[in-house]
Structure formats: structure tokens, C-alpha cells
Design brief:
The chain is α/β, with parallel strands linked by helices. Helix content is about 35%, strand content about 25%. The structure holds zinc ion (ZN).
């Protein structure tokens, strides 16, 4: 197998955001994903003599888009990709499901997946070596339902769950430990989850990043991708009076419990 020339690294922003920087060892051109803060990005690019080629945006929230204007001023010729169904200033290319984005400078292309739920027009960027899913899928959790329904979010998560299990998952927040504390309440007998919780606790004690995760691992630990697991179903049933007839309804109960946790 040819070793990949691509790498993905985090730039920390705000309290717990990660702005992902995609690079190719053969080039000084890089791509930023969801740059909510331009200053930390410009600082990093300048210090490392990198050239910004493009920006990928997953959804309209300020902590994902706040840096667009300043980055565009500093790098006037860049392409700025984002969701077609959301109103975001500065986009040069508007994307939706089944679109493809080719970034020639890095020799990389992404398939676009519509993942509404957290916001109405949220998109994800998929390449076999990297999934950028914004605030849709987190390690051990998923985004809050600000604009979509539980059914929409369950459908969106199902699409991501069907990607190849080895796909690395680059989420945009360091929420893993809080998510796993909650997940253990939903599935206390999940040993893989308990082991992961221990590992993440150690990482966070040293202020280390817990990402990327991958799809296969999330299928084993993330209660929002495990609405077919008997323990998750039983926890959901114990927390509602309503009969639960499908996975989206189970998802809705678990999501509501997390909102109130
Ligand atoms: Zn968001």
C-alpha cells in the first residue's frame, strides 16, 4: 500500500473547538475546515510558511464560520466551500449531497453528504482517509438538534455509520469525555465503552486531544449510533411512557436525556 501523503492536524480555537488543517507533504498548500477564528489560523499558517488554498465549511454557526472574512482578506484567491442550504457570507461554492469537491493543490477530493439535524443544511465532507462532520457526529455523542428533528438527525447519523469502519472521524469539538460520561449511563455494561472512557480520561488529564475517532469505534461506543443495542433500547424504554417502535424514536429519547443531563 502506498503511504498517504496527506495529513490532518488540529488548530485549537475558543474553549474546545478544533479547526482542522489538511496538508500534503509534497506541497505548502493547505485546507482549513471550519475556521471559526481567523487569527489562530493566520498565526499557524505564517509560522509554518503555509499557503491557504481552500476552506471547507460544514454549517453556519459562528464558531465554524467566524474566520472566513479575515482569511479571505489575507488570502484573496481561495475557494470557500459550504452548504448550499445555509446562508453563509463569503462562500464561493455551494454544495449538497452527491456533489464532489476536488482540491487540486492537495490532490484530494471529497464527496458531500447532507447531514441535517444540528442545523437544517449541515453537510459533511468524506474522503476515505478523513471525514469532516462538523457538529453532527462527535466521539461518543452527536450534535444538539437546533434546527432539525430527531428523525432527520437519526437518518444523518445512519449515513455516516455506513461509511467504511476505518474512516477517521474529525469532529470539531473536544466533547469526548463529557459524551462518554453520559454514554456510560445509557450503556453501563458496554466494556469497550468503559475501556475507552478510561483512556480518554487519561488523555484529558494531560490536556491531550482525543480525536480523530473512526466509524468502527463509534459504532462500538457511541449510544447515538447504537439505537439497536438491547441495553440502549432498554434505557430508552425505562425513560419514556411512550411505546418505542423504531430506532429514530429511541434516538429521540436518548438525545432528550442528553439535553437534560
Ligand atoms: Zn454548530
Amino acid at each position: 500500500m502506498v503511504k498517504s501523503q496527506l495529513s490532518v492536524n488540529p488548530i485549537r480555537a475558543f474553549n474546545d473547538n478544533y479547526i482542522w488543517l489538511i496538508s500534503n507533504v509534497q506541497s505548502k498548500d493547505v485546507v482549513l475546515v471550519d475556521p471559526g477564528d481567523a487569527d489562530v489560523c493566520i498565526q499557524h499558517l505564517t509560522a509554518n510558511h503555509l499557503n491557504l488554498a481552500a476552506i471547507l465549511i460544514t454549517h453556519h454557526h459562528k464558531d465554524h464560520t467566524g474566520g472566513i472574512k479575515k482569511l479571505k482578506a489575507a488570502y484573496p484567491n481561495i475557494s470557500i466551500y459550504g452548504p448550499a442550504r445555509e446562508n453563509i457570507d463569503g462562500l464561493t461554492d455551494k454544495l449538497s449531497e452527491a456533489d464532489q469537491v476536488a482540491i487540486c493543490a492537495l490532490g484530494i477530493s471529497f464527496n458531500i453528504i447532507d447531514v441535517p439535524g444540528h442545523t437544517a443544511g449541515h453537510i459533511a465532507y468524506y474522503h476515505p482517509e478523513m471525514l469532516f462532520c462538523g457538529d453532527t457526529l462527535f466521539s461518543g455523542g452527536c450534535g444538539r438538534l437546533f434546527e432539525g428533528t430527531a428523525e432527520q438527525m437519526a437518518t444523518s447519523l445512519n449515513k455516516l455509520a455506513k461509511l467504511p469502519p476505518q474512516t477517521p472521524v474529525y469532529c470539531t469539538h473536544e466533547y469526548t469525555l463529557a459524551n462518554l460520561n453520559f454514554a456510560l449511563k445509557i450503556e453501563p455494561n458496554n466494556q469497550v465503552l468503559a475501556d475507552y472512557h478510561n483512556k480518554v480520561t487519561e488523555l484529558r488529564q494531560q490536556d491531550l486531544i482525543t480525536l480523530p475517532s473512526n466509524i468502527g469505534h463509534e459504532l462500538a461506543v457511541n449510544p447515538f449510533l447504537r439505537c439497536d443495542s438491547p441495553e440502549v433500547i432498554n434505557t430508552a424504554k425505562a425513560n419514556t411512557e411512550q411505546p418505542l417502535t423504531n430506532q429514530a424514536e429511541i434516538f429521540a429519547v436518548i438525545r432528550r436525556l442528553k439535553d437534560n443531563a
